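Subject: for your reference before the review

Hello V.,

The reviewers asked for a structural picture of the protein, and I figured it would be easier to keep everything in one thread rather than splitting it across files. Below is the amino acid sequence we used in the manuscript, unchanged from the supplementary table.
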Amino acid sequence: MKIHIINGPNLNILGKREPEIYGNSTFKDYFSELQFEFKDVELSYFQSNIEGELISELQEADDNVDGIILNAAAYTHTSVAIGDAIKAISTPVIEVHISNTHAREDFRKTSYVSPNAFGIIIGFGLRSYELAIRSFLD
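And here is what came back from the structure prediction:
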């Protein structure tokens, strides 16, 4: 099983950014924990603050992995192009968010990812990624 995690803008500064919402762990540290916990799964990871790079990564991952976990971060609420990219590929994408986006600002309640995602996991902190991996394994 190969699962590719794609993270969008500002997720490279986890541990520093609003720790009351996102926690104190860096994603790099958390990714190491995921690799340890899911030894039988080939996990890979990509992060970019640039919308076009996220789209290219989705397209490149298509048919090369069994599943994609996408946290498009703020682009979730603004990027028709990322939504279209997900619609255009055949690999299932699970949308994840660390915080409960529905309990935050109104603009975060809109997702251009959700209509094209295989599933959505929000609000479980970094554990949202673990839940997404488990959903691919069930």
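For the response letter, the relevant points are probably these. The chain has a mean pLDDT of 92. The CA atoms of residues 101 and 108 lie 5 Å apart.

Happy to draft the paragraph if you're swamped.

O.
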